[in-house]
Design a protein that fits this description.
With 233 residues, the chain is α/β, with parallel strands linked by helices. The protein is 40% helix and 12% strand.
């Protein structure tokens, strides 16, 4: 089962990484890869869509917004190479869901335990703001990904954008597919709801805007991840 799931996820990653469906995102991700930030001027940027990664037998899905322009769009792995990822992976390590507390590049030895990390939009968007159409275009990738992650029980949505996308994703996995619940459950840090066959947990995004201001603390993030681990069984 692990090998079959891993092979399917590998094939899906190859398809995602070749995607050119959203012209605005294609133009932006490639522009950023050419006009590199000074600190990374000597590095080769990934500059393509970013697939999810983690444990193929994951029971927890961490669902983010989109790759960061100089983070995952540079390194080729979601939440890798930026301050948001530093904060997130340190928490995963403290909660027993990762083998190390840092993530700097693909091939750095990071392994996730029972967890898969992905995003609602797979390309870095201008201003970190994807459009609803870009979100909906990318949704098909998430549906296929989640279908391959047959053991997932809990979806942790990092931020309000991921919460809305996660509600639609989880509901679409019902048999038969269902629309998102009405009225839609509101997003808040620590919010919890059922959608389709999954439990969704809300968590403030580990962006610098949240972590530097204290809106999201280490203890707050750890609490949500430990709750996800408890619910996932």
């Amino acid at each position: 089962m692990r090998n079959a799931a891993g092979a399917g996820l590998g094939e899906l990653a190859s398809e995602i990484e070749a995607c050119t469906r959203c012209p605005r995102l294609v133009a932006w991700r490639e522009q950023v890869a050419r006009e590199r930030r000074a600190a990374f001027a000597k590095e080769s940027y990934w500059g393509r869509p970013v697939a999810g990664f983690g444990d193929p037998r994951a029971r927890i899905l961490l669902y983010g917004l989109a790759p960061a322009a100089h983070g995952a769009n540079r390194t080729g792995r979601i939440f890798t190479g930026d301050r948001s990822g530093d904060f997130l992976f340190a928490s995963l390590w403290r909660c027993g869901l990762a083998n190390q507390p840092h993530s700097s590049a693909r091939g750095d030895g990071l392994r996730l335990r029972g967890t898969w990390v992905s995003a609602a939009v797979r390309c870095a968007p201008p201003g970190n703001r994807p459009t609803p159409q870009e979100r909906d275009t990318c949704a098909a990738w998430s549906v296929r990904e989640l279908a391959l992650l047959a053991h997932v029980r809990v979806i942790v949505c990092l931020g309000a954008f991921a919460w809305q996308a996660g509600l639609a994703l989880a509901s679409s996995m019902s048999d038969p597919p269902q629309p998102p619940p009405r009225p839609r459950p509101g997003f808040a840090h620590g919010s919890q709801t059922r959608a389709g066959p999954f439990t969704l947990l809300g968590c403030f995004h580990p962006s610098q805007q949240n972590t530097f201001t204290g809106r999201l603390t280490e203890e707050m993030l750890d609490s949500v991840l430990l709750r996800a681990r408890e619910l996932a069984g």
